[in-house]
């Protein structure tokens, strides 16, 4: 009789007509029917409040806990991004004399994601995977996507960006910059909005000047203290999870752990934020407080000495021969910090949100353990746990497995391909319609994920996740299979041994 393959994904059933399949013969039996592939409860497997390990680490061995401040001890609401965008936009208009028409642009929440690359000479914002390939469908000039064929043409007929062009150790190449911190979301949106205005109005502009002007405008918001004033004025509006920050720090101190703070923010700002979250005696919890540290230079440059500072911000002139509990220090460098404290190696665990400025040097040069704070993780895990995402992923795996096993380039191959790409796009859009997940392209890890794995022992959505674990807990990375260790695709489970096609023809080749 006639065989009619059926492919089921989620609640949809796809059927191939009998006429199209006449004359086709499969060397190994295909999956004629894929039943519901999701076991009961599979959509609640991941915990958004869990800590995930890239490397084995025992908290029992950790004696000293270090923290960054912004987006580590202090988490901010998304309202801050709109303020940064609007203020930098107005600086462009009023100080850099950009067109008044830019005022119609407002911040677009969810337009950009962290970890994107920006090609300064092409005004191109794009997502790049761990192998330096641009993910097609995720390249934008202004607020509009660039067709895939144009992206490939821009880079000489390839999607690949060479390493020398792409980035140095800190994600800054000769013409391409990677945006790695959460504060960069308004900057990416402003770059895209200004580019959109110039392109829409057919105004010629210099891409390098555009990038530098916007970078300077964003820097002004931070350097001139505008952002600090907004947060200090309404901490309830901007600061999140203050009670959890207090609980984490208090718990660590109660278990005789030493704590220190190294931040680029000024003391007055940190002091007001910590008093809001932890209480007026917050400094009693810390053995060391270092502000305006100038990371990442703090970790690599030996030249800047520590300076003692009083609560009013006045600097002392005396030479620092020891770091005292309860005192405030400005600038300095890690080499003096290590010499004066003796805090070295894996007994120190430092938490930060910026993979380059906070974590990279500490792990690679100094042997500290590192924890990455990735607030986006909570939202992404909740999406992964949805039935819609799980069904989409299962359907993609089934289709990919079938495509690998079909021995002809006929109707069925084309049909399967036509179903695979919309399914991939659906999965991407669940995270972000423009750029998808910050952790993954369609199937590869992103460049952000590659750096996350390289520079952090553990990662989590916020430091409050530590409350879910005993202070002596040991984290073990899951043994995720290498490609040659991976289990067989679902469509191969019942087919017995795979046979090499054309084996009989090859046997005569010597």
From TrEMBL:
Q: Which CDD domains match?
A: HAD_cN-II
Positions of GMP binding: 70
Comment on bound cofactor? Binds 1 Mg(2+) ion per subunit.
One MF annotation (Gene Ontology) recorded for this entry: 5'-nucleotidase activity
Keywords attached to this entry? Hydrolase, Magnesium, Metal-binding
Q: Which Gene3D superfamilies match?
A: HAD superfamily/HAD-like
Q: Which residues form the active site?
A: 68 (nucleophile), 70 (proton donor)
Protein's recorded name: 5'-nucleotidase domain containing 2
The species is Podarcis muralis
